[in-house]
Amino acid sequence: MFSIVRFAFIIGVMLFTASYAASSKGLDTSWDMRYIDLSKAHREGRYDEAIQIADELIAVLKANSLLSSERMSSVMTKLGRIKSDQALYAEAHPHFIQALELSEKIFGVNSRDYEYSLMDVAGNHADQRQFEKAEEIYLQLLTLKEAKKDKQLSDIQVPLQALAHIYYEQGRLDDAERHILRALESSKADVMGVKFDGSAHAWQSLGAIDAARGKNKDAIAWHEKALKVLDKEFADSKKKWETAGNANYARLIACHERLAKLHGAIHNTKEAKKHEKRANQLKAEQPGEPMQLPEPWRQGVLPLR
């Protein structure tokens, strides 16, 4: 099943590989290892330490005349995300802008690296509720993706879903619905040889729109439809790998929690408790650290209001 969470992971791997396959002129592997330390500190929420490591890495790049390199772009992106995770969106903005400028200079505007940086800038505007600026960039991104001869269906899903979020946040429900329906058309996708079905994301988003319109029963129907897909994906994952991945758990838990909220809104206590119980069961059996779904414009599902 296509998921922005899983797709974002693939993107992250691609970016990491692209950055460090670049020339290592003036650097040894200690820089790469220190970058891994930066990523770990960020992932574990040790933000002050992560920023200190980033400053060290930048100093090394400066000493080696590599401030215009792919590595610098990677560090700027990381700093932007560290600030964003702390809701310091205004402080994150210049880091994302610098990463975007470097991506354009190094890879060009038709590269995926540039598109990923563009998404970061647009998401930053959305985080600051600067919706007009975010919309302009996402429309630019959609145009770039649609113009590609070798585009995949999954390519246009990200800007379509992001635009839907922006319209939804502004109460423009018809516009949000139109973009979700278009994303649904391209929900079955092949990303780097892996087949995904993003229907469950789109159906839950349509449910959120109906809930915002006061149509809670219709919203529940959309979510029940999505739950069948998520349950199947979860079972298939367990059958193949003996355990479901954290992304499978996170999506399934979120759907049950949404259904509990929707049933609670129409005072269907029995169903609400059933879904709460199932969500708690999944949380208890989930292996490892729970996966935190990213901010709305990157996870592919409109939030319930």
TrEMBL record:
Annotated signal sequence range: 1-21
Coiled-coil portions: none
Protein's name in the database: Tetratricopeptide repeat protein
Organism per entry: Permianibacter aggregans
Stretches for region Disordered: 269-305
Keywords annotated in UniProt: Repeat, Signal, TPR repeat
InterPro entries, A to Z: TPR-like_helical_dom_sf (IPR011990), TPR_rpt (IPR019734)
